[in-house]
Design the sequence.
DNA sequence: CCCACTTTGTGCGTAGTTTCACAAGCGCGT
DNA sequence: ACGCGCTTGTGAAACTACGCACAAAGTGGG
């Protein structure tokens, strides 16, 4: 394992690129459904909402999968991106917290576009346990370890209230789940090597509000505020 | 109030900073609830999950609101960040698409932590119209313009299936809503000046899968795949 | 009043990301 | 076979973000 001469798959795909690959993949699958066989970086970039140079550089990190003068073969590129993202294998997902959001996630078909299988639903509320949601029976959080082991769960989704999220995260880590998607509005503390991604609805709204305010400030129509108190 | 010589509020707050301000704000509010009066950049950074130099640099973009040797006054900093984010005014939000996700959003209390008010729920499905969700009566999508005008809606949330999302976005833009939060798995096309943020559950899962696969590749336990076909 | 200690604000080197612009490669028509 | 036109892949420049490390500025004790 000295060198690695003809290996384009450098193992070092930039994070920013990784975050865009799923977008490209979706655009490609849409093209595939429409029967398109080949696509240029320009066309795909437009469909994905990025500029074509960025798209080409992103794809170049996976290898040289295009044909100059022609473009990319849709099916082949779908396969390559899927493989890079790890979607050629199946991932089992456990959702903890079967409130409104947890239920919405469980029922969200788009998940399993390919590669993801919701394997277990868990909640701490015993009145919830045993209910059927999205065709699965809700289990008690205490059976987490069992559920994870029996189903080979490797991705955990936290859809609990903020107060329980850290606790659930700890449980996930204990039973060996090293990928966590967190919907609770808290910063999770996890050991090195555990990967947490956060989806936070109110943060997104606040970012929108910031830009909206910017826009309004510049315009004539300023919105109510504008106190201007200085309190040095 | 002649010029503005000592105005640190440069108008040029980096996007990366803006995205973190809501996190700081939440950490500060937690401290405030606990009665803390003052906090150091080190402590706040830990609570927010970032490093302290980054925190200080972020805050320095808003102005010089700390005291050397002491730290930041919690209440004052809450106010400053809130103001910067535009949360000292109220924002009205309309949610379109009252499926599982839309309902979850409508019921999500955390939204209105401060500053956001859900003002209208709309759906295209006439069997949905008239139902009461989260204390609001669901209206028909055709009444969007009326709902926006009557409630001063300036932020639109799209929680429809992918197929309808672009259409809804167009309607929002037409009636003057220039901030859109999109949960549908599509790239929206909007005119210049309209701000779209995307929240995409399956993209997040795919990013997790990518890193999980990385981890597994390095480890002894390699997962199934590994075909190694080269097809030059 | 001065000194030791704490903590902010920031200059600066580094790393990562985006964009431009163009050479290299490929297909097709002649 | 050849050349024309199209499209990729990629150096290099420009921009953005990160984090160290330290001077500046404030507190409190003696």
Sequence:
């Amino acid at each position: 394992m000295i060198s690695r001469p003809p290996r384009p798959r450098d193992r070092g795909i930039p994070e920013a690129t990784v975050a865009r690959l799923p977008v490209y993949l979706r655009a490609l699958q849409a093209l595939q459904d429409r029967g398109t066989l080949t696509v240029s970086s320009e066309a795909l970039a437009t469909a994905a909402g990025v500029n074509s140079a960025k798209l080409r550089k992103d794809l170049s990190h996976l290898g040289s999968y295009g044909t100059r003068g022609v473009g990319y073969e849709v099916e082949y590129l779908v396969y390559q991106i899927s493989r890079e993202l790890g979607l050629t294998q199946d991932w089992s997902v456990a959702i903890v917290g079967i409130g409104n959001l947890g239920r919405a996630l469980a029922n969200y078909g788009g998940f399993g576009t390919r590669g993801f299988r919701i394997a277990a639903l868990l909640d701490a509320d015993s009145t919830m346990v045993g209910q059927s949601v999205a065709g699965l029976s809700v289990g008690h959080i205490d059976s987490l370890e069992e559920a994870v082991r029996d189903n080979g769960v490797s991705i955990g989704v936290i859809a609990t209230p903020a107060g329980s999220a850290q606790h659930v995260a700890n449980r996930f880590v204990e039973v060996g789940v090293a990928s966590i998607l967190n919907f609770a509005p808290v910063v999770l503390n996890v050991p090195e090597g555990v990967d947490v991604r956060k989806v936070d609805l109110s943060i997104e709204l606040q970012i929108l509000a910031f830009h909206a305010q910017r826009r309004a400030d510049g315009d004539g129509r300023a919105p109510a505020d504008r106190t201007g108190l200085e309190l040095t």
Summary: Confidence is low (pLDDT under 50) at residues 1-10, 220-232 of chain A. The CA atoms of residues 76 and 99 of chain A lie 40 Å apart. Residues 15-33 of chain A form the longest helix (19 residues). Chain A has eight helices and eleven strands.
